[in-house]
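Hi, here's the filled form for the chain we discussed.

Project: internal
Contact: R.S.
Residues: 319
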Amino acid sequence: MTSTGTAPAPAGLVAALDIGGTKIAGALVDDEGRIRLRARRATPAAEDGGNVMAAVAEVLDDLRSSPLWAEVRGVGIGSAGPVDRAAGAVSPVNIPGWRGYPLRERVGERVGGLPVELIGDGAAIAAAEHWVGAARGSSDALCMVVSTGVGGGLVLGGRVRQGSTGNAGHIGHISVDLDGDPCPCGARGCVEGLARGPAIARRALENGWRPDPGADASAVAVAAAARAGHPAAVASFARAGRALAASIAAVAALVEIEVAVIGGGVAGAGEVLFAPLREALPQYATLSFTRGLRVVPALTGPDAGLIGAAAAALGRLEA
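And the returned structure, exactly as it came back:
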């Protein structure tokens, strides 16, 4: 029988899965958040749901083949969403073959009845940063990932707050431009459409930036151009920073966070992103209880999803 999220695994090792549209990562993680063993497969996101699950099974089988598996006491899954915690199901926007897919049950079958915890990838990021990252010691925090999409999770009162379905903190779909471009979610002007990596690259291209011959037109390349002072590249990151500032300020006004932690590939641009974000934030965080809000880079990097999934399996989300 698989778990519904109430019984933490005993201290020791847990298995963690981080499932997204491009990769399925797995790890064995100890009760101090240290990764002891890794496995990985590409996500066959364009294929049917059975083939995606087969890739998950291969990752689990790699972990199970280790002698360390004998110490594993539970499994945590951080998945792209939306997720349905109660049903243990997932419907990732970027994995069309999974709609209402019973992921917790399928993983439970694969691991011989060990308890399995399922959380959304935003909650996993929040759990990781609150446990061992930049939000450690903070009672109230927003933890974000800015990459090919924009997602996040909330820590309130010292606990990761997932919401009734497991999707709380999904900041990427706060609208910051009421007359903005349509978003695949159905709304307009979502922060994801302004701050995600492909949007930054598209805006720079539209305004005259061009990648070097043979290079990709990526946000990484735009960041390099911005550091060199290219005006279209600088302006594109400034626009993304303002969009993020507006959304972060909205969250702060609603739930009184003290810190916003930002990770993901776009955040890897460093001050190219953080400088305009911090400059714009006081224009939006104007209320007395939001003015002290700090914005800091994440510390758990690409392992955030794995560490957060492990935190769920160890019962740390309720700590």
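Let me know if anything looks off before we file it.
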